[in-house]
Automatic annotation (TrEMBL):
Gene3D superfamilies linked: Hexapeptide repeat proteins
Origin superkingdom: Bacteria
Species the sequence originates in: Streptomyces smaragdinus
CDD domains named in the record: LbH_XAT
Entry EC no(s): 2.3.1.-
Listed name of the protein: Streptogramin A acetyltransferase
Amino acid sequence: MPSRGDTVVSNDVWFGYGATVMPGTRIGDGAIIAAGAVVTADVPPYTIVGGNPARPIRQCFDDADAGLLRRAAWRDWPADLVTEHARTIMAGTPADIARIATEHAQEKHL
């Protein structure tokens, strides 16, 4: 039987209890997979999906804010920077997180 390819789960993805991901699917950054969902197709970044088969329920952020978060890539920050800004990462706006990423990048180049 031929392979369906690799299953790829990006960063900051949340899986609800009992979710199933079929082989060969790709789940984008920040996606939320509802409890009991059966993922049979790719899930775009920052999208909430649910059902069997899983279908988009809504976007977590608009395209502009999702882009800010993907470019900020807080998961690649040094541990001390993540620790320092943990509250903002958990509860801040995408613009807040992007601002920290920009400031950190500027400090690195000074």
